[in-house]
Specification:
The complex is a heterodimer of chains A (92) and B (255).
Chain A (H helix, E strand, L loop, with lengths): L1 E3 L6 E2 L2 H14 L10 E4 L5 E2 L1 H15 L3 E3 L5 H15 L1
Parallel strand pairs in A: 1-3, 2-4, 3-5
Helix pairs in contact in A: 1-2, 2-3
Chain B lengths: L1 H14 L5 H8 L3 H13 L3 E4 L6 E4 L9 H12 L10 E2 L2 H18 L4 H21 L9 E6 L4 E6 L4 H6 L8 H10 L13 H11 L3 E14 L2 E19 L1
Antiparallel strand pairs in B: 1-2, 3-4, 4-5, 5-7, 6-7
Helix pairs in contact in B: 1-3, 5-6, 6-9
Classes of the chains: A alpha/beta (92), B alpha+beta (255).
């Protein structure tokens, strides 16, 4: 399964929006996931991603589905910086 | 003679980055009535402004910290410091997060039209998004007076200001870190450690992200709260005391 983040908006920066997106994804996207299927997170087409939004969406996604979640490569500098900082937070 | 005294008062206020009337009276050795008359004249001439009331009134030079800034940026600063509604502009004030988000969307288009700075546009937007959303995340139900965020981008001076009249950093972080006792320590922790005022929620990485973007891209940031200011200039980070007290927070980014 592939989750395209651009479908949640172009500028993803706020916590409430991230939380809302996570609730929506659980109800309408992840409910179709079978028990062995992997999840690819696609950042293409996104202008801005910040840690606040990511922390409310990507952190619980990763916590729930662990190794089944793959972040697809992205050249977007805000995506790179955000993934770096939430990974650092996870390790701490 | 009158002019000389006024000039000396303005210079004294400038040199001390703001002061109450007492030290000015001592410095000049004049009768308080005369000094207050000069202060009043300087306010009318818009050379200085005052913050607070009664014995806690502090006088500031209008150009302090804002030399070269546009009037919109100055208004945002003065509103943040004084809370005077006369400085509020509905063109730039975001009373809710939705308005801020809409203005952020519009700013992306403005940046793409005016700037050829590539990836920096998106990083700047991310930093602005984090700072602006922080104002709403941490001040819901706790604004000092007017709820919302003053958000101005000036493409002429290449300056962005985000100002609120919320709890401020010290008050926000005290909930999670009661040992923090002063504004300088609070602002340092907010920008360098993984900690959030919304304890026990696990968050608190936003301002670290902002700091990294500013440093990695050689931008300048001044971040005020209480009587402290953090500055990132040419990748050098330092926290200083500020004689101008900002009750909430003010962030000024130069790009």
């Amino acid at each position: 399964m592939r989750i395209e983040l651009k479908k949640f908006g172009n500028i993803l920066t706020s916590r409430p929006a991230g939380k809302d997106a996570w609730s929506s994804a659980q109800a309408y996207i992840l409910s179709d996931l079978n028990s062995v299927e992997n999840i690819e997170v696609d950042f293409s087409g996104l202008a801005v991603l910040s840690p606040s939004w990511a922390d409310e969406f990507l952190t619980p996604l990763k916590s729930k589905y662990t190794d089944r979640v793959k972040f697809l490569p992205s050249d977007n500098p805000t995506v790179k910086a955000t993934l770096e900082i939430i990974e650092k937070q996870r390790q701490e | 003679m009158k002019t000389d005294t006024s000039e000396r008062i303005a210079k004294y206020i400038s040199d001390h980055h703001g002061t109450s009337a007492g030290p000015i009276i001592t410095f000049l050795g004049h009768h308080p009535t005369g000094v207050f008359r000069h202060l009043h004249c300087l306010i009318v001439k818009q050379v200085i402004y005052k913050s607070g009331s009664g014995p806690k009134t502090i006088y500031f030079l209008k150009s302090n910290n804002m030399e070269g800034s546009s009037s919109n940026i100055k208004n945002a600063w003065q509103w943040a410091v004084t809370g005077e509604k006369v400085f509020l502009s509905t063109d730039y004030f975001c009373p809710t997060r939705d308005v801020f988000q809409a203005r952020l969307d519009r700013l992306l288009k403005d940046f793409e039209k005016r700037l050829t700075i590539g990836n920096l546009t998106y990083l700047l937007l991310a930093a602005i998004g984090e700072i602006g959303n922080n104002s709403f995340d941490h001040n819901m139900g706790g604004w000092r007076d007017v709820p919302g965020l003053y958000f101005v981008t000036d493409f002429q001076t290449k300056e962005i200001i985000l100002a609120d009249r919320g709890r401020g950093i010290l008050e926000t972080l005290r909930r999670a870190r009661p040992e923090i006792r002063d504004d300088q320590k609070a602002i340092d922790v907010a920008l360098t450690e993984m900690v959030s005022g919304r304890f026990p929620e696990q968050r608190g990485n936003g301002l670290k992200y902002v700091k990294k973007i500013i440093e990695d891209n050689n931008l300048n940031l001044k971040f005020f709260s209480g009587q402290a200011m953090a500055e990132i200039k040419q990748k050098k980070f330092e926290v200083l005391s500020s004689k101008i007290s900002v009750p909430g927070t003010v962030a000024i980014i130069n790009f």
